[in-house]
Amino acid sequence: MTPGWSFGTRDSLQRARIAGALWLLGAFGLGCGSMWWVLRDRGTGVRVMITATDALPSELQRLRLSDTQRSEAQAALSRGRDRVLRVVDSFEPAMQSAMDSTDQEIRLMLTDTQRAQLDSSRALHGPTMRRERKVRP
């Protein structure tokens, strides 16, 4: 047997600790990689995200509302969600107009070749303004 290499209980414990440490480092690395993957396309621009829901928030759930209060709160939240969505709907055309005018200003300074490259890139990568709406029944 090679000196320093015994296979007793102490060595088994040491191997288990090393394996655990490697597993922990691997899990940490995967977590960091996942976060990078999620955040990689965020860029430095302005991101507007609005959540309008009629779900009863946890702070109201903790109040132990009566059935009547819960029903009234649910109706108010539903009306509030609809108001928020109307504001978003009225905001969207103004936002698109601002983006379009900026786009036109930039396109004026580009050469024909650069405009063609920009159009090709945009066709490949999709719209600059995305709208997502999830509606629960």
Q: Would you mind describing this structure in some detail?
A:
The mean pLDDT is 82. By secondary structure, the chain is an all-alpha fold. Helix content is 67%, strand content 0%. The chain is built from 4 helices and no strands. The termini are far apart.
What's the structural blueprint in terms of helices and strands?
Elements: H1 9-39, H2 58-61, H3 67-109, H4 112-125
Quick overview:
With 137 residues, the protein is mainly α. 67% of the residues lie in helices and 0% in strands. The chain has helices spanning 9-39, 58-61, 67-109, 112-125.
Number of strands: 0
Largest sheet geometry: none
- CA distance, first residue to last residue: 72 Å
Principal-axis shape? flat
Helical run tally: 4
Structural class: mainly alpha
Overall pLDDT, averaged? 82
